[in-house]
Write a structure and sequence with these properties.
Blueprint (H helix, E strand, L loop, with lengths): L1 H6 L27 H19 L4 E2 L2 E2 L1 E4 L4 E4 L2 E3 L4 H22 L2 H5 L2 H18 L11 H28 L1 H9 L6 H21 L2 H6 L2 H8 L6 E4 L1 H4 L30 H4 L20 H13 L6 E4 L1 H4 L9 H22 L4 E7 L6 E2 L4 E12 L5 E9 L4 E3 L4 E3 L4 E11 L7 E10 L5 E9 L8
Antiparallel strand pairs: 1-2, 3-4, 4-5, 6-7, 8-10, 9-10, 10-14, 11-13, 11-15, 12-14, 15-16
Length: 473
């Protein structure tokens, strides 16, 4: 039986966070301070402040970012996108994805190592708290009061997770609404309370237990990078030409006659493994670019410290392209670096044009349910229609609907529609037309819709249906 189990073992490492027997390999990276660490820390704390402050910032009387899922309205920088703006939102997503593709083609997974919330909170919030209570790897505190210290550590984790969950929810319900709910009873807002509780629990599970597994197992971006990178992309790279063959520094031994013994010439890598010990996903960057690498440059900082101590040039591990390492010239201008910006220019131009030409209201006529038409006692034909109007302005408006052409058609059972700012309202109306106006059982109408502020007026075409002939008495 043991031999069978051994035969099932993979020939190569599957993940940096798995042991050979399939159990989890816990990663406890050593802190490595250097120029990249300090730069990332500034970026991280700046992003944390922005994430916490954005729900409280208003622009043009609206939250800077507000994702009102219930009403299907999304506000970005004072501009509200309504449910009818699916094309604009689709273009916005295209812009976002193409931007990610371009950044990845140029700088690899710099997003993962510098700006991803998983990395920012794990490496610059939760991990430092763990080190505060238990000490960093290599500087662990005595085991005295370890249970009490662990309790305090997870209590702080819980408070931070609760803050993050509430901040996350404020993007969807509004910061001011959320602050009122926090001061009130959970029974008054049970759904929001449950969402915060579940989100807090997920945060605790992620940052206290799952940790780097999110980057190694769950994140799809890692699996996309092989298609987005090329030999000219800047990634964290080990200069194998300079570092190999690796080996520890030793004094040259002497023979019995006192003559120095010639040893093999080694590269600059002294095989100290500091690059492995400091990696937050547990990889060895000397094995080449790997799926788990998040481009954080902690290994570069660790290696530079060692190189400085032994008096060798810095940059054995650095941001470089594959061509640079091979001694070739890196091509900044290449097909994907040209195509992605062209797509971006086209998408941004389309977005700006559609946004600037968007009318002050959106109008949609929907045929009523039930019978297509009714024949009245006056031999007139009535069509039930539902009109839906979205007020895109920042002020309430009253909209009227009237028939422009052909003469003789009228609208019954309808009164002007009062609609609040950025709201959508639907009303039923009855379009009545003499039978004599129908040709082949239909009439194409010109319907005018305008508001009381003079900001919006449009003429829409709509086809009503009728019988080919009137029934005989």
């Amino acid at each position: 039986m043991p031999d069978e189990v051994t035969n099932l073992a993979p020939e190569e490492r599957v993940l940096s966070t798995l042991n050979e027997d399939g159990s989890r390999r816990w990663v406890n990276p050593r802190p490595s301070k250097g120029k990249f660490f300090y730069a990332r820390r500034i970026v991280a704390y700046l992003l944390i402040v922005i994430f916490s402050a954005v729900p409280w910032i208003s622009f043009n009387g609206k939250p800077l970012i507000f994702l009102d899922v219930v009403h299907r309205e999304f506000t970005f920088f004072g501009k509200t996108f309504l449910p009818t703006d699916t094309l604009l939102l689709a273009i916005l997503l295209i812009i976002l994805f193409v931007t990610i593709f371009l950044i990845t083609a140029l700088f690899g997974r710099i997003w993962c190592g510098w700006a991803c919330p998983q990395t920012v909170y794990m490496e610059f919030l939760y991990r430092p708290i763990e080190w505060l209570f238990n000490g960093a790897p290599g500087k662990r505190k005595p085991k005295k009061f370890i249970g009490f210290r662990k309790f305090l550590q997870y209590a702080v984790y819980l408070l931070i997770s609760l803050h993050l969950a509430q901040t996350f929810l404020s993007y969807f319900v509004g910061a001011h609404n959320l602050s009122e709910w926090i001061l009130g009873s959970p029974a008054d807002h049970p759904v929001a309370f449950i969402i915060v509780a579940v989100t807090t629990g997920l945060m605790m599970f992620d940052f206290a237990y799952f940790r780097e597994q999110v980057c190694c197992v769950m994140c799809p971006y890692a699996r996309m990078q092989s298609a987005l990178l090329d030999k000219d992309s800047l990634t964290i790279t080990y200069d194998k030409n300079r570092g190999e063959p690796r080996g520890r520094m030793v004094k040259k031994p002497k023979s019995s006659s006192g003559e120095p013994i010639n040893l093999p010439v080694l590269g600059d890598c002294i095989d100290c493994t500091m690059c492995v010990q400091t990696c937050p996903t547990g990889i060895d960057i000397r094995d080449g670019l790997q799926l788990e690498c998040i481009g954080c440059a902690q290994c570069a900082d660790a290696c530079n410290v060692v190189m400085e101590k032994i008096g060798r040039p810095l940059g054995l591990i650095r941001y470089a392209s594959e061509r640079m390492i091979e001694g070739e010239k890196t091509h900044f201008i290449r097909p994907r670096v040209v195509i992605y910006p062209l797509i971006l220019i086209g998408a941004i131009s389309a977005f700006v044009f559609l946004l600037s030409t968007k009318p002050a209201a959106d109008v949609l006529f929907i045929r009523g349910q039930g019978q297509v038409f009714n024949i009245l006692e006056s031999d007139e034909i009535a069509n039930q229609v539902r009109v839906r109007i979205s007020n895109r302005t920042e002020k309430p408006a009253t909209y009227t609907v009237s028939i422009v052409d052909p003469p003789g058609v009228r609208i019954d059972q309808f009164s002007p529609m009062e609609i609040e700012a950025t709201e959508t309202v639907s009303e039923n109306l009855l379009i009545v037309a003499p039978f004599s106006l129908f040709e082949d059982g239909k009439i194409v109408l010109s319907i005018k819709i305008n508001d009381d502020q003079g900001k919006f007026e449009t003429i829409e075409t709509y086809k009503i249906l009728g019988p080919m002939s009137l029934p005989k008495d």
